[in-house]
Amino acid sequence: MSPHREGHPPRHKGADHDERRAVPAPPAIAEAPRPAPGEGQGVPTPAEDLLAPGEKERLELVDRLQRLAAEFSNYQKRTDRRIEEERREAVRRVVLDLLPAIDNFDRAMAAAEATRDFQALFEGIRLVHGQLLAGLAAHGITPIETGRRAFDPQHHEAVAHLPSHEHPAGQVIEETQRGYRFGDQVLRASRVAVSSGKPGEGGDAPEPNGGTEGEAPAEGA
């Protein structure tokens, strides 16, 4: 008996093979390429795009503040350097103006030592003194005048008060240390002795350091 069922024509092997080849294969699913390590840095990712607008503004503000802080720090350093340079330059100019007076001082002392002429030494010292005052005046530093002037606590410092027949109470009698001003500012007050008036007269007289006391001292001039 034939192995093939009745009513079904026999199949050839080649036909079965052609029929299997004709069936299309399912499409392959392409795998997304994985980024290499370090690739894509600095490029906004979808997660960053989804950040809330407020978070983005906060990050931008932090970045701006950090930049401003760095700029301000650099500005402070430049300012400190400029102030230091200006200070050194001011000192340099003053010293250069005073050095000629010191040179003349050296010459006067050398000449006096060689000749034993003390009159010449005195004249040399007086010349140097004038040069020093001129050098200070070139930078706005001038002496405070005290001779026969009323005591002024803004410019004078009273170190003593004495009765006097020649000077009225409150007038400067003697200057013990010269004061100087720098422009309109007192650089150092003059130390002076102040008259308390005629002996036996009452009245107010400046105390040492610019104060006042109610009674004149008993000691005489």
Structure description:
By secondary structure, the chain is an alpha+beta fold. The protein folds into 2 domains: 54-139, Alpha-Beta Complex (Hemagglutinin Ectodomain, Chain B); 142-213, Nucleotide Exchange Factor Grpe, Chain A, domain 2, CATH 2.30.22.10. The chain is built from 4 helices and 8 strands, in the order H-H-H-H-E-E-E-E-E-E-E-E. The strands form 3 sheets. The protein has a 3-stranded antiparallel beta sheet with strand order 1-4-5. The protein has a 3-stranded mixed beta sheet with strand order 2-6-3, with no helix packed on it. Helix 3 packs antiparallel against helix 4 (118-137). The longest helix is centred in the middle third of the chain and has 63 residues, at 53-115. The radius of gyration is 51 Å and the shape is flat.
Features:
221 residues, alpha+beta, Hemagglutinin Ectodomain, Chain B, Nucleotide Exchange Factor Grpe, Chain A, domain 2, 2 domains, three-stranded antiparallel beta sheet, three-stranded mixed beta sheet, 4 helices, 8 strands, flat
